[in-house]
Amino acid sequence: MTRSSGFKVGMGIVIAALTAIQNAAAQAPTLALDPSRLPRLGTIDARFQSYNVEMVEVTGGRFWKPYRASASAPSSRGADNPGNVPVGGNPDLYAYREPIDLSNPRLRRLAAALAPAYMRVSGTWANSTYFAESDEAPSTPPNGFRAVLSRERWKAVIDFAHAVNAEIVTSMATSPGARNAAGQWQSDQARRLFAYTRSVGGRIAAAEFMNEPTLAAMGGAPKGYDAAAYGRDFKAFVAFIRASEPDVMVLGPGSIGETMASPSSPQSSADFISTRDLLVASGPGIDAFSYHHYGALSQRCSGIPGQTTPEAALSERWLASTGQTLAFYQSLRDEFAPGKPMWLTETAEAACGGNPWASSFLDTFRYLDQLGRLAKAGVQMVAHNTFAASDYGLLDEATLRPRPNYWAALLWRRLMGTIILDAGVYHGMYLYAHCRRGARGAVALLAINTDRTIAATLRLPVTSERYTLSADDLQSASVKLNGTALELGPNDELPQFAAVTSPPGSVEIAPATITFLTVADAKNPACD
């Protein structure tokens, strides 16, 4: 062999070695996991995975206009009520909806499949909604209110909750109409709502005083409303609950906005009230610490199309915002209400109805990762906003057909139990573990591969049953389970979710896919 040929061979070996190193670097590591040995971390509420039905959906009114839809024609009775939008809001961002039909069989079937759950009926519009004092509801809101909740519509909420095994969570009217001449909150409206609920066989499980008091002005609070006024009113609310409704959980404060890093974020408003100031002023009284989380304002609200993008939707920075917001409010909980459970009573892809891709499979990575992260952190309730309104709804509001996030929610409900296991932290894959729902000793895993080009590998010592969610286009409104499109049956039957059996050994998690794995023979003692 000549020196020249030897050099070429040597260089070929070096190049091959470098290529192998590069290929190895580009491959996510194989993660070895023994489901039988995963330790217990804690438990979550059986109704952990929950949802919101906005008060404005119940009454009918103007809510966030979907990007691909035009506003419906207002009713002949003038229910359009163009003034009933958040203070300072651009009316062009909203579209009128007739009251949601809570007796709709498809809506009930799909909600019941997620049971048990909490159904939160609140939102910004609830702060200024008048509850009728008789079966004859006024055609226009009384002074100091901007919407009317009839007894008929609230009875529909109660009937729906019964039918779908949901516990009602709500908040109080706090606008000027619910106050005396001195501006102090009065319990008359709240007392009427609770009394009527009981009279028709209903129950309110938990209540916040006000929706998002950090943004009290936007929610219709009196001009100049501040932390001191909130503290005074909150104490009156707690006194009312303890005396008249002792079985109702008091949630609070229900804050939002302090972890959004944007020039247009809520805390940049001159009217913003910090959660710390609210808690200092209100003192003790909550049974659970509630907060809201949106990673960003949507395009329709911020006017900044690039505030968050489809390209960033699978990034750690985006997904981690869930934990960052929890950490912020958890520190305040530890200071002002130590030991109280954390409830995330409103959350979705982005505030103000969501971005255009909130209705697509692209957001399902965030949806399931958020549930996994928060369950692991001990949060007891997560209420997605909304069940069936605007772009971030679990269902399409026009057809009530499931979107990808609904199918993900249904898989979570069927497979993930209430006992949380520690699956560890890995590079290259988000991995969460629970005891399998309804199966002693069994384990359910959730593996999320957010890399768009590189597969991840999970090695298990036992047989598992696999349920993989994927889409041909990440921004598709449809999703596949093990390669088959998920759809309702001819009579709205839900699919059976057939699994694919994976033998012991390596399980590949393809790029940009989400896989649930159940291990019936795990024999994990934490799950007995």
Please provide a written account of the structure.
- The protein is an alpha/beta fold and 528 residues long.
- The protein has eleven helices and 24 strands.
- Strand 10 (204-208), helix 6 (227-244) and strand 11 (249-255) form a beta-alpha-beta unit.
- Helix 6 packs across helix 7 (275-282) and helix 9 (316-336) packs parallel to helix 10 (364-376).
- The longest helix has 24 residues, at 3-26.
For the structure shown, list the relevant keywords.
eight-stranded parallel β-barrel, single chain, disordered N terminus, alpha/beta, 528 residues, 26% helix, nine-stranded antiparallel sheet, 11 helices
Strand content is: 15-25%
Count the helices. How many? 11
- Radius of gyration, CA atoms, in whole angstroms: 25 Å
Main beta sheet: 9 strands, antiparallel
Which residues form runs of ≥5 with pLDDT under 50?
1-26, 70-79
- Portion of residues within helices: 25-40%
Approximate shape: globular
Q: What do the pLDDT scores average to?
A: 90
C-alpha termini separation? 68 Å
Structural class by helix and strand composition: alpha/beta
The total strand number stands at 24
Topology record:
Blueprint: H1 3-26, E1 30-32, E2 40-43, E3 49-52, H2 55-59, E4 61-64, E5 94-97, H3 105-112, E6 117-121, E7 129-131, E8 147-149, H4 151-164, E9 166-171, H5 188-199, E10 204-208, H6 227-244, E11 249-255, H7 275-282, E12 288-294, H8 299-302, H9 316-336, E13 342-348, H10 364-376, E14 381-384, H11 404-415, E15 416-421, E16 430-436, E17 443-449, E18 456-460, E19 464-470, E20 480-481, E21 484-485, E22 500-502, E23 505-509, E24 513-519
Parallel strand pairs: 1-18, 3-6, 3-14, 6-9, 7-8, 9-10, 10-11, 11-12, 12-13, 13-14
Antiparallel strand pairs: 2-15, 4-5, 15-16, 16-17, 17-24, 18-23, 19-20, 19-22, 19-24, 20-21
Helix pairs in contact: 6-7, 9-10
